[in-house]
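We modelled the chain as a single entity of 81 amino acids. Its sequence is:
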Amino acid sequence: MLDTAAAVPLRQALLDLIASGDPITLDGSQVTQAGQACLQVLASAQAMAASIPTDFELNSPSEPLASMIALAGLDSLVAAA
């Protein structure tokens, strides 16, 4: 569940991954709920990864996650198939 409560731990986990410099691949298939705060964290992490540069991919978003991504206009979050 990527709700508001998950935003801070998600942010820290992504910052740690970005700091490692390794490519980041996230699997969104099990997300049952997604809120704007976590979408903002994901978008920010994607931009930060691009500035390093390192790969950042969000694969297989669940229907709830895909719907929120589309609603927020953040289609660039989802890796191209």
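As a brief sanity check on the tokenised model: The radius of gyration is 12 Å. Helices lie at 4-20, 36-51, 63-72.
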